[in-house]
Amino acid sequence: MEGSILVVEDEPAIQELVSFSCASSGYKVRRVESARAAQEAIRQELPDLVILDWMLPDRPGLELLRDLRGEERTRSLPIILLTAKSAESDKVAGLDAGADDYVVKPFSPRELVSRVKAVFRRRAPQHSGEMLSYGPLTIDPARHEVSVDGKPVKMGLAEFKLLKFLAGHPERVFSRSQLLDNVWGDHVVIEERTVDVHVLRLRKALATAGAQGLVQTVRGLGYRLSARSEQ
Ligand code: CA
């Protein structure tokens, strides 16, 4: 399984259990103990998913969730809320604040991992480990293989990751900064021009297989994957 997970939990035993379960399933895990540390970790590198405890020492996880939903960069970041609160009104508050799922303590690690997978499938299919297909494209994330109309296409790892991300959200336009965040995990240090370079290489690779015009430039906004003809 691919994808990075940020675990925000102050209780050491639970932090360990959650991190171990996710890491055992192949996810790259970072862990922090407070809302402030979570914000700093997200600022440094955008994770692909956050597992967020409700009761944190510095501020409620629910508040952090609302903040993340209010910011452009983290608006669509998949977030699973972790809590001992099982009252229906708490679940509703969590989901209303924008949580993608809600796991009540105590939970089984297997259930947590299957919920993580389900959220990835729904919100970030490029990390679900399942085959992605769009138009003439088929992408096998497990084998790092791409084919166009059944013909294999060779490309570099960066191009592969870029294509996988775009194929997880076809027809959607992403700015260079969003692509850096989501594909490279860094929107500050790496230059936006890097995106253009890899888009160019990706287009070249796809063109050798006869797939032109799939990775489209949307002037002034960024790039998208679309099988519709370019405007
Ligand atoms: Ca806690």
Can you describe this structure?
It is a single chain. This protein is 41% helix and 20% strand. It is of the alpha/beta class and 231 residues long. The strands form three sheets. A five-stranded parallel β-sheet has the order 2-1-3-4-5, sandwiched between helices. A four-stranded antiparallel β-sheet has the order 6-7-8-9, with helices on one face. Helix 6 (157-168) crosses helix 7 (176-184) and helix 6 packs across helix 8 (193-208). The longest helix is centred in the C-terminal third of the chain and has 16 residues, at 193-208. The mean pLDDT is 92.
Question: What are the salient characteristics of this protein?
Answer:
Rossmann fold; 5-stranded parallel sheet; 4-stranded antiparallel sheet; 8 helices; 11 strands; 20% strand; binds calcium ion
User: Secondary-structure element order, as H and E?
Assistant: EHEHEHEHEHEEEEHHHEE
Low-confidence residue ranges: none
Supply the CATH class of the largest domain.
Alpha Beta
Structural class, from helix and strand content?
alpha/beta
Calculate Rg over CA atoms: 19 Å
Describe the sheet with the most strands: 5 strands, parallel
Please indicate the count of domains. 2
Number of strands: 11
Q: Tell me the CATH superfamily of the largest domain.
A: Response regulator
Number of helices: 8
Spell out which ligands are present. Answer: calcium ion
* Outline: elongated
Helix content: 40-55%
